[in-house]
Predict the 3D structure of the following.
Amino acid sequence: MSSDFYTASILPFAGIIIKMCRAYTDTQEDFEDYYQEVCLQIWRTKDNFKEESKWSTWIYRLSLNVCMTLLKKRKKSKVSFTSDNLPDEVVEDSKAFADEPLNYLFNAIRQLSEVDRAVILLYLEEKTYQEIADIIGTNPNNIGVRITRIKERLKKELDGKVN
Amino acid sequence: MEKSIETIWEQGFLKDDVLVAPKLNDLYNKKSQHIVDKFKRMYEINIIAIVVFALLILPFSYFTGIPYMGIPMFFLFIAVVLVNRKLKKKLDKIDNTKNSYQYLSSFDQWIKELVSLNTKLSRYLYPYVFLSMFLGFWFGSFGENIPGQDLVEFLQNKYPDMFMLFGLPLLGIIAVILALGLLALFGGRIGQWDLNLVYGRIIKKLDIMMRDMEELRGESGIDITNR
């Protein structure tokens, strides 16, 4: 991946990728793996981008696909660590951000189903219902109801933790 | 008053240093380690499975009345295990402290050696297996009638004009030689097919990864293969 491509086409949207990856991982190590995999997939599939949607939408969709695929893979085959391949650093992601309430929010988001995580992230990123539906590939009609339900659940999770 | 999730989100991401992108310089480290480890696990399991087969084939062939097949098969399995143990030692010696591209290149070289050796050996292995089976069924059990001789007698009675060579039907000899020739000719391909059946997915993944890494290295900029 050339540094030009990374600097021009990925880095300005790194925020999107970071938020997505944080929502689907529990440790710093996993987060970095997911981030790198998303970047690699963006580079691999860059020629498939047809400019029918925004580049940012493309990145959202790709990040989401990669995160969900990796999560499923991880669930399927829990990587067993032997003494030879112990992770160098396993940092609990509960302290991923300096802002405490944000950490609580991400921890709560991680309790949601895979699709609900995507829906609420996109909602918080101020995407329209249509955009959310486009990115996750669903009908826009029930997005609103779904968001209300997710918000209620998050509110319950955060109850008493965030003032 | 409690903050809404929208406010938490907005305020949390206000600071510039919140979203720090991780470095990309070890993109392939885990991937390369993972693919080699996976292969090693499969390879180890296969070697153990062959040892188990080798140990089982002797009593199995004895009790099923084909000991003459079991003995050469036992030696064949043992030989296969010894060859693979030797290869495994080489595989274990691959230096994983090199960068991931060099690491995978060494692994790729090792795979090529495995394929090449397997192809060569298969040219002898499959005819050997066929011959073992043939002899096993021909000679039958220890101390009993020889089924092959019974068959020859039966054929001689039925086709008295049958052409014989060294006391065996010529057509039968030709058929066996033809089968051995064909197995020797196509043994290499059968061996490759067999190897592909077991390790094909990993080898394909390795090819894709190597291609990606070569392309990435070809482009100027970030070296993503550092360890």
Notes: Chain A is about 65% helix and 0% strand. The interface with chain B takes residues 1-6, 11, 14-15, 17-19, 31-33, 35-36, 39-40, 43-44, 85, 97-99, 101-102, 104-105, 120, 124, 151, 154-155, 158-159, 162-163 of chain A (CB under 8 Å).
